Amino acid sequence: MIDVQRLRVWQAVVASGSVHAAARHLGYTPSTVSQHVKLLARETGLVLATRVGRGIEPTAAGLRLAEEGSEVISSLGRLDHVVSDLRDGRTDHLSIACFASVAQTWVPEVAERLRHELPGVVLEVSISEPHGGRGRRAPDLEVASEAPDEAGSTGAAFVRHDLGLDPFVVALPVGHRLASADEVRVAELADETWIDNVVYDSPTLRILVEACRAAGFQPQFAARCDDHQATLGLVAAGLGITGLPSLAAHRLPDGVVAVPLVDPVPQRRIVANQRHLTAHTRASAVALEALQQLATQVRE
């Protein structure tokens, strides 16, 4: 069995670029680091590094071992987290993975419900990030968005709960010609300057672009920002307009108004994927019920 501490030391050598640098970062002597590396090479039967001048250079096998070892160390980090909770008397926890607008608008109310009904529960929230980092728990609930016409693809480890549809609005500066309208036809925005609030390909961006294409034009983006709140700040500054789900427009900065979009009505489906292994827990049930009730408010 591979010694985990030696694996950690080897990862430090690869990340630091040298034995001496790794020794400084870890608080070890260079000879101690070198000894860990030699023992790890003996354990694995691999050539981890080759001598280059007065230093070493990781081999392809050494780099692969350092990379693959991250998953093992992350798993041990999660186990450390569990042990810490048990030692401190915290025997229940809930991990939620979600996108930013859910974290800002729904998670505080979910947390309040949990605090009221299960005062000892430990809540962990991951926003727009994959789970698997050191100490991070696998999600008990994943809140995700998808296009309404997409076939849901929940993995075998989860049970899917449809929370409903979230229609889009257009965010406009207060002085915009359409700012006082009750609703805006998508075609009326064909000549506008747009600001992308996603940057990376996502269901939200695809839904908006498809709505524009259905109205006969391709949106022209003058700026891209990977945060919808920062994007709304750019709208307030007059750099352009943006289209986003109504949940993401829950908190508008001064100088911005949100108007519903029609013809067509772009909308996303919000789903909650509940992990089978923890679905029986009271924490998971309470959080799911809270999410379902909050989603009902969006539809009303």
Automatic annotation (TrEMBL):
Please report the organism this UniProt entry assigns to the protein.
Ornithinimicrobium faecis
Family under the similarity heading: Belongs to the LysR transcriptional regulatory family.
Q: Which residues form the HTH lysR-type domain?
A: 2-59
Q: Which PANTHER family match?
A: LYSR SUBSTRATE-BINDING (PTHR30346:SF29), TRANSCRIPTIONAL DUAL REGULATOR HCAR-RELATED (PTHR30346)
- This protein is called LysR family transcriptional regulator
Pfam families, per database record? HTH_1, LysR_substrate
Q: Source organism's superkingdom?
A: Bacteria
Taxonomy of origin reads: Bacteria, Bacillati, Actinomycetota, Actinomycetes, Micrococcales
Give the UniProt keywords, A-Z. Answer: DNA-binding, Transcription, Transcription regulation
Would the keyword Lipoprotein turn up in this protein's UniProt record? no
